[in-house]
Amino acid sequence: MKLNANLMSLSIYKNYSKTLVRQSNALKRISSGEKIMSSKDNPHGLAKSELLRLQIRGLDVSSKNLQDSNAMLQTADSAMENINSSLTRMKELTIQAGGTMSLSDREIIQKEIDEIKNHIDTVANNAEFNGVKLLKAEGIKDNNNPKQLINTSGANVGDVIHIPLYNLSLEMLKTSKGDLSKGVDVTKEDNISNSLEIIEDISKMVTSIRSKYGAIMGKTERIAENLSEFNILNQGAESRIRDSDVAEEILTYSKEDILINASTALLAQSNRFPQDILRILENVK
Q1: Which segments of the chain have a pLDDT < 50?
Q2: Which end of the chain is more exposed for a tag (fewer CB within 10 A), N or C?
Q3: Tell me, what CATH number does 206's domain have?
Q4: How far apart are CA 60 and CA 231, in angstroms?
């Protein structure tokens, strides 16, 4: 038996120190909600978690991009609906002009038609979204070859969606029968039939573009739904890797607390061993 080195107390203290560390770590995991607080805790898990977080953030941004794209397409569709309604009215007036023999009546009708033309041009010029001209894209010589706007639609390389931008200003509304600006002239009786053909062809063109936008809107909505599902799955996977089980950590904390209290009691008792031995030796004669 040794008096100067209380090995029992040292052993108890060693276990006591380890218990304190474990309890402290459990408390940190409870307060932070994370079981990986540094790379040393789980290097491989931390790497996987960071990749998942990167993916999650990318999906969040892509979802916002898709929402913006859909809002932009809805704005363009609303403007084209206005143009379609204007063309319908123009067709009604042209048919009306074909039923009158009076030049003065046709001239009055032509004035309203000209006003509708200007209205169509104004709608095309003013249709904007976040500074982007939706129906008067620059650099387009032919609406059969629209300008392509590329927007991200996912968190990975190559996840993009192409949105065509057209020019539906008055100067670009042309068909093989003529252009809407000058070709539609009901003041000349023999031009009414050709004017109707031009209006109908332009209406078909605008309707075709609206159909394309409608298809793209449906596609963006489906992609957004898929991104939302992927994001939930990624968040679940990241949570399983990184988030702490609070109930389990509370149990660990409570267990370590019991051990600390027991170690404290044992330390107090073991620290008295040398004095108790000395007292015993004092009584030895």
Answers
A1: 1, 3
A2: C
A3: 1.20.1330.10
A4: 8
pLDDT of res. 151: 86
Specify if 22 maps to a domain: no
Tens-digit pLDDT profile for residues 242-253: 766 666 767 776
> pTM of whole model > 0.90?
no
Residue 1 pLDDT: 47
Of 120, 153, 168, which Cα lies nearest the Cα of 224? 153
Determine the Cα–Cα distance for residues 189 and 42; give it in Å rounded to an integer: 85
Neighbouring residues of 146: CB distance < 8 A, sequence distance ≥ 6: 137, 140, 164, 165, 166
The count of domains in the chain is 1
